[in-house]
Amino acid sequence: MKWKEWLEKWSMTGLKISTGFLEMEWQPKDADRDAAWEMYIELLTRIMKFPTDSGRLMESVCSLEGVPHVQVS
Fold first, then answer.
1. 25 with 32: CB under 8 angstroms?
2. Sign of the CA dihedral with 49 first, then 55, 59, and 64 last
3. Which of 13, 14, 27, 36 is 20 to 30 A from 56, comparing alpha carbons?
4. What distance in Å separates the CA atoms of residue 24 and residue 16, rounded to the nearest whole number?
């Protein structure tokens, strides 16, 4: 079973947010999926272009912790 089929089976094809001040429902369209895929591939294949001995490497890696689909180990 593919991921998309599993999500559809459990009716997990959209996002609904409801708070005290905001209520919103979002159904992704093909353009949203395409943009998400492009961003995922960009993050997956990104090459660092600065020296790794400068301490900026750890700072850059730590800044990716909140980005979806990125595992930092």
1. no
2. positive
3. 36
4. 6
